[in-house]
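Researcher: Here's the sequence for the chain we discussed earlier.
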Amino acid sequence: MTEQMIIALSTLAGLTIFALTAMRCWQGWLTLKEHELERGMHRVPEMENGSPVGAARIEIADLKERLRKLEAIASGVDL
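Model: Thanks. This is the structure I predict for it:
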């Protein structure tokens, strides 16, 4: 066997080992995601009452009220 043949076979063996390892990791990742989906970890939390849009509007109104109070404090107005 020549030196080039040994290098080629070693490269092929290394590439094969790498490909098998990558496939095993990919299968493990897919299994993990499958288990997460079965357990429901990717579900969007549902609101008990109302829609998420309504909750977002309330939160925005609350933030605006806080901002108004902070601006009043900064300008020296007594609430």
